[in-house]
């Protein structure tokens, strides 16, 4: 869980006051960026996140934990990956993308991004139609009718 202290952005010359960001906002930013990386099946969520999803409330910060210590921000990301992807390649891409996205949106830099691969999700097989178990997908019904001469009648 995120630490309870707000992050104060560095005072800028053009700012008219202070700008504070709650760590949960960073978790949402990083969660959305991580879920958009190719090869990521989904983020790991908690039971509370699953219950919220049943009620139609998406939790974009699930699977991300941000800790702030001594002006350094560290992120732990927990993901499920698609079967067949290169785990190191996806993890490195994720680290790069999260750093870029947080810098772009908040002007903050991540000191570290720890990627935790929780599981691999295999590809789903196509569903079989129980009413048509022996259907031959190569022949079209129109082609079969024209070959038997039914169209000519």
Automatic annotation (TrEMBL):
A Pfam family: Asp23
Biased composition, class Acidic residues, residue ranges: 134-147
Family annotation (InterPro entries): Asp23 (IPR005531)
Region (Disordered): 128-153
Protein name: Alkaline shock protein
Family that this chain belongs to: Belongs to the asp23 family.
Domain of life: Bacteria
PANTHER family: ASP23_GLS24 FAMILY ENVELOPE STRESS RESPONSE PROTEIN, HYPOTHETICAL CYTOSOLIC PROTEIN-RELATED
Taxonomic source organism: Lacticaseibacillus paracasei subsp. paracasei Lpp123
